[in-house]
Write a structure and sequence with these properties.
Strand order of the largest sheet: 8-10-7-11-9-12-13-14
Number of domains: 2
Shape: globular
Oligomer: single chain
Structural class: alpha+beta
CATH superfamily of the largest domain: PurM-like C-terminal domain
Bound molecules: adenosine-5'-diphosphate, magnesium ion
Helix content: 25-40%
Largest sheet: 8 strands, mixed
CATH class of the largest domain: Alpha Beta
Strand content: 25-35%
Radius of gyration: 20 Å
Number of strands: 14
CATH architecture of the largest domain: Alpha-Beta Complex
Length: 319
Amino acid sequence: MDEFSFIDAIKPTAYKQSALIKGIGDDAAVFRSTSDIVTTVDTFVENIHFSLETMDPFHIGYRVLAANISDLAAMGAEPAFYLVSMCIPKKWKQHALEEIYRGMDELASKYRMDLIGGDTVSSDCLMISITAIGYVPKERARYRSDAKPDDIVFTTGTLGDSRAGLEILLQGKEYKDKDYFIKRHRLPEPRVGFVLDLREIDRMALNDISDGISNEANEIAEASGVELTIIEEKIPVSDSFHQFSEAQQHEWKLSGGEDFELLGTVSEVHWPRMQEVASLAGTSVHQIGYVRKAEKPCVLIQSDGETKQLTKSGYTHLK
Ligand code: ADP
Ligand code: MG
C-alpha cells in the first residue's frame, strides 16, 4: 500500500461544514469561525485500547471517534471537524484501514462532521490519534469546575453496559440481551443532542464517562472544590445488568468506563427543566446524588446505608 493511494481512498468527496475553506490536500486545513473553538485529541493503540479479537476495523473507527466526540459533548460543544493521525504496521492492509475510516465516517455523518486532514506513517503497531474540533457560543463552554454546593449530581443513560459487552465478547458464552451490550461496547453513542438541547441552562458542570464515574466524579469534586455524594442504588443500569455477579455490577458501574455517558451537576432550580428536555430528546437522565461544600474535595458513596469514600480507582474504604 502506498500512502498516496491510501489518502486518496479515504479522502471525502464532499464537505458538509460551511465554515470549511480548505480540507484535505494542502499542507494544512483552514476554517473560519466566530464561535469559541473547542479542540481535543485522543490516541488509541492496538491491543491496549482496542483489539481485533473483540472488534472489527469498522467498530474501531467508530469507537475512537466516539471517544473524541464525547469529549466535545462534555465541553458543551457542537462537533464540526476531525483529523486522523495513523501509525500503520505492514500487516494492516488497505481494505481494513478503509474500514476504520468507514466506521469513523458512519458516526461523523450523524453530526455532519468533516474529515479535514491527518498524517500517515509506518510503525510496529497500529496507532490512531484523532483530533476533534467543535464550536460553542462565546464563553458558554461547560467546565468540570462549575459544580456548586446544593447542586444535583446526574448521569445520562445506563452505566456499565460497555464493560458488560466486553465481558460477553471475551467469554463467548450466552447472555441475556447479548446484542444490546455488545452494541454498547462497539458502537457507543456520545450524548451530543442532550448537551446542545440544554444550552439554555446557564451553569452546569459536565464530564464524560470514559474511565468510570469513580474517576469522573473525583475530577469534578477536585476541579470545583466540592464534596460529591453518590447513592449507589440510584446509579442507573439496564434491566438485564442484574445477570452479572454483584461484584461485577459494582465494579462495572463505578469503574467500567467507556459508556460515553455524561456525569454532571446542575442547580436544583434547573433540574426539572433538564428532565423535561431530556425526555423530549429521548435521553434518560437520573439524579444519583448531590453536592455539598467541602473543606477537602472528595467523593462519598452511600450504599446499603453505609457511607464510604469513593477514590478515583473506584476502590472504596471506610471513612
Ligand atoms: P504534508 O506532507 O504536507 O504533511 P501529507 O502528504 O502528509 O501532507 O498529506 C496530504 C494531505 O492528506 C493533507 O491534507 C493531510 O492532512 C491529509 N492526510 C494525510 N494522512 C491522512 C490520514 N491518515 N487521514 C486523513 N488525512 C490525511
Ligand atoms: Mg506539506
